[in-house]
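Dear colleague,

As promised, here are the two records you asked about, laid out in our usual form so they can be pasted straight into your sheet.

NAME FIELD: protein one
SEQUENCE, THEN STRUCTURE:
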Amino acid sequence: MAIWNPWRGCHRISDGCRYCFIHEGDKKRKQDTRIIEKTLQFGAPIQQTKQGYKMKSNQQVFVCFSSDFLIEEADVWRQDCWKMIKERSDLNFFFLTKRIQRFEKVIPPDWGDGYNNVSIGVSVENQQMADERLTYFQTLPIKHKTIACQPLLGPISLSDYLTDIQLVVAGGEYHKNARLLNYDWILSLRKECMSHQVAFEFRQCGTHFIKEGKEYQLTYQQLFSQAKKAGINWYP
């Protein structure tokens, strides 16, 4: 696994962004998240040593987890990223976005029905965002599609949007003022995924978590350990 952040910085566009880890991390580092700028890592996938590419083959590369790959301010740089992604067909690139409606405006000219080595996930936090983003997402020519219900802020039904989806991930919000996550919402999503033969992963609990009517307050480490302990990940 590798992480490639060609640029950093972002701005909030919906309710799920309120306690975004990008903004919270920048706050601790005393960086201005509103400034979108290229990083020193911009050309990482094609950097080479005498032995070949620094980024070794046959691994998954998580892209732009310090921003949004489809953010408007990065339009001037993105085509160079697509070229690097195409050159490194031996790597599998994955990015999440809340800006999927911009996708057709910013894909490379040779995208066709999608690059085999690109997986794209759309983040949705409530039913409104699911309906808005996924209605469009399901029409797009993308080889590998993921839905990320994280942070999950309320019950969501994905039944209308699971065609051609390979994976759904779900999880809660981490912050002292985080919105509640109800375990019933997670189980409902899992049930829908199982009925549509779509893989499901419960990635993390929320800081404020309700299960069987009882409310818990969890530490950062417990978010992941308790989700894993639930043992509800499912694969067709």
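NAME FIELD: protein two
SEQUENCE, THEN STRUCTURE:
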Amino acid sequence: MTPSAPVQAPAELSDHLRSNLRSQAIDEHGFELNLSPWNSRIGHLPGAPIRGTNDDTERGIISRGSLFAMADAACKDESNDAAYALLWHTLAWGSGTNHRNTPQRVASVTQDVEGIGGALRRAAIASRKDPEAAFRTFQPFEPLIKSLGPNFFTKYLYFAGAGNPEHRCLIVDKRVLATLSRYTAEPLTPRNGSGYGYNTYSNAIELMAHWADQFSTAERRIGFDEVERWAFKVG
């Protein structure tokens, strides 16, 4: 977003940033999950199984930090297995116990394993230099993966940045948009359903990056994702 009058960051965001170290708010942000249902569904697909930080495939913790550690391989592995691994772990992290769309997503992947795998790796690479290309890889016209809209695929694009605090592909879901919309003249919330296009994504990213810049100092550079984390919590 390049507003004619820059939007001042809310005071409550400042309070959040002062009271939360990046290592705690971002790297350690995770969940202990039952991984068995996931692995029973995706065991036949590339990138399986999903493993927690304890290397367990039954139950384990998946954190932002553990997902960041998978990002470079997702960009470099030409077999696309690592990109699939990042996708499955990201979906587990983001879905928790809610498997409402999991069967449709898995079924969609099985229809074109090779083609979708290549697109996943291209999207991971593009996320580091071209947010629009990354976004449109997942949503050119029809979704790349059925039932996987921007609320979720932006999580994959975010983790592909490997924890770079200035990575411009951020998680933008309905809760983040709801928070940001309270501080903009033109609300960012989608008018129809939960889907949205690249312009909404770009505007949300620019606003969060702008706010991060407002609070950054020589002593501490605020990560763009630290603003996203706050926006999700209050959304």
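A couple of things worth noting about protein two: The first helix runs from residue 11 to 19. The first strand starts at residue 30 and ends at 34.

Best,
R.
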